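hey m, so remember when u said the tokens were messed up on ur end? i reran from scratch. heres the input so u can diff it against urs
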Amino acid sequence: QVQLVESGGGLVQPGESLRLSCAASGIVFSVYTMGWYRQAPGKEREQVARITSSGFRVYADSVKGRFTISRDNDKSTVFLQMSSLKPEDTGVYYCNSPSMAATSPYWGQGTQVTVSA
């Protein structure tokens, strides 16, 4: 059974940094593309970054140059280093595999990121 546990969120001021982690279990983590998604209040969930099994990274334009996604296959964990945070980065952040998200309703509990002065 798949389990995704996100952590690392918090309340920060604009310009500050946070590092999110997502521990996965119940899957062969190393073969999956993994992504980070966020859902802002009143908005649809959107993908902000993804990383393939071979380490190729793709970022949404809104976070390019500020966020870095990485993974540790030995620990079945994906990370999101967020720098130069802006108020519009506020939301609940989730990790998932795009392929799993397309076929299963399961999502983890997410981690709240609030960027406010």
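this time it looks ok to me. The mean pLDDT is 96. if urs says something different then somethings off w ur setup not the seq
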